[in-house]
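User: Hello! I'm new to structural biology and keep hearing that structure can be predicted from sequence alone. Could you demonstrate with DUF3325 domain-containing protein? Please show me the input and the output so I can see what each looks like.

Assistant: Of course. The first part below is the input, the amino acid sequence of DUF3325 domain-containing protein. The second part is the output, the predicted structure written as tokens.
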Amino acid sequence: MINTILCALGLSYAGMASLSLAMDRHHGQVFGRDAAVHVRRALQLAGGVLLALALWPCVAGWSASVGVVAWLGFLSAGALGVALLLPYAPRLLFRSSLLAAVAALAGLLTLLQ
């Protein structure tokens, strides 16, 4: 159960961080320059895929109806984490989102077994 929660929360946080870094304002906060068009599109795609993948452990851990509601809660928690970290430690946001994505994807692989 804890693996399901951590996996969904990590994917949600990484997806929300990716979507925020696709915006020029936030990309500039982290990297000091605006994002190129192809980088912005890649971040948007990665964010959407990560948020969609966050639904999988929720539905696998609970039923479909409860899983969707839990997924919406994890999306909110991931967005809150990004919103609280971005103004104060923007570079930490990038590093922590990469770590969360790798850890959550590894956790997702354990759910397959």
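User: So the tokens describe the shape?

Assistant: Right, they're a compact way of writing down the 3D structure. Reading them back into a model, for example: The two ends are 15 Å apart (CA to CA).
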